[in-house]
Amino acid sequence: MINILIICTNQPIAETIARLIDKMEDWHATTALSLNDALERCYAIKFDVILIGSGISQEHEDVLNLHIQKLNVQTPIVKHYGGGSGLLYAEIYQALA
Amino acid sequence: MAQTVLHTANTRGAADHGWLKSFHSFSFAGYYNPERINFGALRVLNDDFVTGGMGFGEHPHDNMEIISIPLEGALQHKDSLGTTATIQSGEIQVMSAGTGVYHSEYNPDAANPAKFLQIWVFPNKRNVEPRYDQITIDATTRNEFVQVLSPNADDAGVWIYQDAWFNMARFDAATTKTYQLHKEGNGAYVFVLKGSIKVNGQDVDTRDGFGIWDTDQFEITASTDAEFLVMEVPMQF
């Protein structure tokens, strides 16, 4: 199972992205609506990819990067663009490659 | 020395959803080609055919500059910003999705298809306030580049959050013009809508895409009467 975390403050968009990910066989999406929510989840689960969605500042992204480095899990963190299915799968395939 | 890439029309990704037929110059939705992800900040170039009366139901977007150029017919647009508008051939629409926007697009003509280009450009700033605009394009000028998009609100055409310039052109056969790039580090992706052209001597035919970078100018010659779109974007962004 490929575990993917989406961090996005826009809940409807986060849910749309999660639904699109969960449609894919062997992919599972988890959503976090804030940095703290994302950090809690990262300490509980080893994610294969973390997608940074809308509403997440560069400062919060940097904090997340630091925590991922501390956890030494080498999870790729990629910015998600577009808010839907258009670019989503390519972003994940590239992150997993 | 200029570097180039040619994407012939028949190598594009294709999707057929019945009511929507789309050709993807770059990886999009179910079409994934790691060799065709983007051209600099240009990430999506979809050549869409929408059956009469059909369209895209409400769906979200975020953090993307989305440009639609109808080629035939019209599209009715509604979004969560409160915009209700119809765009038709001869116009250009831009939406900065920023923090998030929902929209729907339908072909209001039940009898005839709508054909349009959907273009996505990576923004140079994330999480901006969403915005929408549309304008009419100068469709009469021939043998000149007609600017339809820039980074500047007070310049010709619509504007976006990126150092990008788009020009439409209708050239008579044998017309030659030099395109001067606006900014160092930018490249240009030329997409032919009708006819055939040569870009620095390279044949580029209908629905082919040709990218050129590491240069500050290039020459376009129309092999036939031709219509094309020049999309200048940053190669690093």
From TrEMBL, chain A:
InterPro entries (UniProt xref): CheY-like_superfamily
Descriptive protein name: Response regulator receiver protein
Originating organism: Pedobacter helvus
From TrEMBL, chain B:
The Quercetin 2,3-dioxygenase C-terminal cupin domain, residue ranges: 148-233
Gene3D superfamilies per record: Jelly Rolls
Boundaries of every Pirin N-terminal domain copy: 11-121
Family: Belongs to the pirin family.
Record-given protein name: Pirin family protein
Organism, scientific name: Pedobacter helvus
